[in-house]
Amino acid sequence: MRALALDVGDARIGLAISDPNGIICLPIEALVRTEESDDLAAVIETAKREGAEAIVVGLPLSLDGTHGPAARKMRRFTSALRKSADIPVESYDERFTTAEAENRLRAAGFEPSRDRARLDSMAAVIILESFLASRANRNNRRSQ
Predict the structure, then answer these.
(1) pLDDT by residue (tens digit) across 106-131?
(2) Which CATH architecture describes the domain 3-143?
(3) CB within 8 A of 46, min separation 6: which ones?
(4) I want to staple 56 with a disulfide (CB 3.0 to 4.6 A). Which of 5, 39, 95, 121 is the partner?
């Protein structure tokens, strides 16, 4: 399954896409946020252009797993995206993805604080990798 992942922030939406088999995840250029309706349209257009069969939205849960203000805001965005998109939209826990993205970028020789868009899209890669791995694990348990 080819999926598009979103790391939605106040300034940008980091994006990542998987290969058609849902194994390899690659960052794609982040979207600069404007009005929510324009953001939703841009996400849907990206999903169509990339041939995504699903959209995964990072859900910023609190450390204890509860839904704080950021998670409630993202649930509203995800709900609006579900109403607009003609493919499945799921949310997925994004705790610690930004820290992991910073580590990966530093290891690759980039300075995350100088390229926030690259950081946002790398966080989307991590969300997507985790989502796809979780889905594969679930499917493996069902088939045993």
Answers:
(1) 999 999 888 899 999 999 999 999 99
(2) 2-Layer Sandwich (3.30)
(3) 4, 15, 28, 31, 52
(4) 5
